[in-house]
User: Fold these one by one.
Assistant:
Number 1:
Amino acid sequence: MQRTEPFAGTVEVPDARWDERDGVGHLLTRRKMWIGGLAVFAGVGYLVSTALGGSTVYYLTVSELRALPESQRSEPVRVAGHVAPGTIVGLGGGGPIRFAITDQAAGTQQVAPLPVVYGGLVPDVFNDNIEVVVQGHYTGERFEATMLLAKCPSKFEASTTVQ
């Protein structure tokens, strides 16, 4: 609806200012707001996807890792298992440590232990038969870990020495 004002008595001329406020100018402002909103939404979506992309890795057991096809072995994975007894080498030496993990604690072992090499900080509770999660890459021969998490034992035993 256009607003008209009388001009020269009987001839009515549309008010040009009214068209700018409610017509084309208003539509351009709305379009700019939608484009700006979509750009902000796309930017936030991109930041969230890149942040999550680095933190999402697969969580596998030793037997599932060995069953992976060659094409998926280059991706970072997390592997859960138990430290095989007697396999820890280099602990406390300052360099990388080597150990092996299995699907189950000492006892029934159906899959061969997976050799692991890790060069970072070792948790205090790290020992034989402890449940661990390692993150890194599987080369086909060994697992090169970039992160090592050790599960704390469910109970700690009191010392039997009396002072």
Number 2:
Amino acid sequence: MENLKRFLLEHAFFEGIEPHLLDIIVGCASNAMFKKGEVILREGDEANAFYVIRSGKVGIEIPYPGHGSMLIQTLGEGEVFGWEWLIPPHRWYLGARALEDAKVLVFNGACLREKCEENKDMGYEMMRRFSRIITQRLHSARKQILDLAQMPRDAALV
């Protein structure tokens, strides 16, 4: 746990967070691995976690009806994904797939939601931090849509 706490203290997403709040967050964390091509999140499924990439690459994608999925963002080491655990109805709005073998930290959403309800300061901190992630995803999706208008129809499919 001490190594995990040290890792999070040095991570930009958790920068400046109160130590007692970080202790709570660490208590909801575990490690996981995903093989290249493995689906991590599927749009519409229950959103019950968020992830920090320790190594590898993860693609954020949206379904493209009749054509598979469209990659809207590629994430690498240190990046955070999975904001939907925080906001009802707690369903994935986007999908995620390992683009190469990936080691991630998984933060249990049910555990964190319970802790946020008990500690409003923690809830505020999580909402504040994840609002940046949400904004980044919306910007990436917008950019991808604008780029798609300039590309041949099947060029952006994965």
Number 3:
Amino acid sequence: MGTSDLVETWLAAARAAFPDIEVADDVYRAAIQARLALGIAVADLEASDVYLAIACARGGVAAVRRFETDHIARVGAWLGAHEKDRAVIDEVRQRVRARALVGRDGAPPRIADYSGRGPLGAWVRVIALREHATWHRDAGVVGGDDDALDTLARTGEFSPELAIMRARYQPLVAAGFRAAIAGLPPRDRTLLRLCYVDGLALEAIGRMYGVNKSTVSRWLAAARASVLDAARAHVRSELHAADADVESLLGLMPRDLELSLHGIL
């Protein structure tokens, strides 16, 4: 089946899945072709979810209502293992709505950036977990700096669709981290090795360099930030993905740098 025929099949399937939601044929075809042009594999593309995302980005009332019932309504279940306070769950729901569906400063809503690589539900779930972690940090809750995504990555408590995405893209992300570390200046690589492999305290590292531990802490923070930025750039380049998709994908990975850097260094 040629690409054009495949797109028409996807369009028919999306219309069947969302009979009360209207997206113009040419708009949908152009959106799908744009995603395929970015290198998204046919097997990876959630074509019906792209249809819903397009309609939501354009402000369709029926589409937003379906997004609410299919995805926003699941936020409580997604946070169930980490949050029991109904008021907090409701706050996270509202933040997810705003983050996904409301444009800012003239920009389209974030859901317009959904690439279709992986289920829309997985994309929304990552936003919910990030917003939950952000709420804890903003509220100054003890332990709120422990990102729920890191907990999921360490415990393996992923839904089946997230587990599939993690397995598919983890080698690419790992390669990004290896390339990022290889590109660091020698001092930064040494600092990371001393901290994460040798387990030296900041004071001990400071004595080696003749500086105080605050300076070492700043150096390490800068090195970590450089690694993360370079890894993001590697993944973005390899997948031709939008920033939002890269962040969502990295959110599925084992992002605890103490573990990641120890293994790579």
Number 4:
Amino acid sequence: MLDPSRVPVIVGVGTVKDRPADPSLALEPVALMAEALSRAEADSGATLLDRLDALDVVHEVSWPYADILGLLCGTLGINPAHRTYGPVGGETPVRFLHEAAQRIADGTSQVAAVCGGEAQHAVAQAQKQGIALPWHPRDENAPPRNRDYLAALQRRVGLDMPIRVYPLYENACQAAWGQTPQQGGAESAALWSQYSEAASRTQDAWLPRVVPPEEIATPGPANRMIAWPYPKLMTANPLVNQGAAVIVTSLAVARAAGIPEARCIPILGGAAANEPKDTMARPRFDMAPAMEVVLEAAVAIAGGDPAHFAEREFYSCFPCVPKMARRALGLPAGTPPTVAGGLTFHGAPLNNYMLHAACAMVRALRGHAPGTLGLLYGQGGFVTNHRTLVLGGEAGAAPIVTRDLQTVADARRVPPPPLVEGRTGDASVETHTVVFRADGKPDYGAVVLRLPDGARSMARVPREDAATLGVLMALDRSAVGRTGRLLPAAEGKVQTWVA
């Protein structure tokens, strides 16, 4: 048994959902964070916030502040020595929990907290209604999001947003798995219905109802197509007001505070690895070595068998991610993928969803027998940043595992094909999507192509080319591998592709 003062455990979790009819009455993000921290302290049953020596805040987007750390600490009257405000990335809550646990294991921290909050729903409603929100001043000098790390051709083709990039993985994976688009869509709809079932039972979920697969799969006025093959009910929903917080301490501190050990959830460790930030610098769109290696590391922590995880949370911005994760783990179809409900139905407080998932995981594990294991898999960027964290098990049985597997992931990745433009002639589809307008009609198609010499290129399909768009959206046959013609670009335009 390790020294209890060096054994990290989660002792308190807090979540909050705020949905007033009048957006001017909504809690601002920093207030959501403060409330979540207060609820996490109450959940622990001990007085811990005034002992906090470390605070990590997940990157907040909906209402940027000039000094969110100072504002939050002033609101709560706390003064932790370690204060970190995170970068953009859906995996950062998992990273922060892991780092907090490692500091406790190292003896450099005794009581730590991770928190985040977003109020994008209130911000959007206020903008729509012309209401000035009575919140702390917004930082008007906050830098805008910059995606210059994506290839210039990719940005010109219009594949510069998550909803337009993840379908590249979805369509490539369906083809690699031998599925027709209809079969792949049916799998996604069934999976997303599982997420909705979990959301219907989850505290503070935004859309807590069970949604049948047929409703998820069928486009319509309330479920318009966003980017092929994803309708709205298969996409993350950032229009939420939600906050979450987790308090981590040592087993020794928890015991001294009188917290029952049955409510202390150990943090056993995990792993991290990334894909290249430029998606066109990746050789394939039907796999992600960084995902595979971090999941394999989690399985090793669990004793070598993924079935040892009683509970799982697979990141779920879009269906391709948990479908890839399940296959990477070798789990059967129908395996429950979530404890929180996913970024569509639980809601997607931008970078902070996995902290809500961690709260749901702690609540779930407390309901199991002592020693039960749970897996958190978080992901950020464009299938870019990957992290796992294993919770549960026997506290202090082994040192915390912290593995940087970047070298291992890089070794699995073959060199990507060169990205070229200006070529014409035969070109086959490597992967693709069709981007839709707000009225539900196609705006344009975007294709990633392979040329006869193996080089990669990209092109658009204009909305007027209904025949080629029909090829890209056929239900009975994947367009991946379909050969067509890459045409010269008109002046000031990107090249087009015709089936």
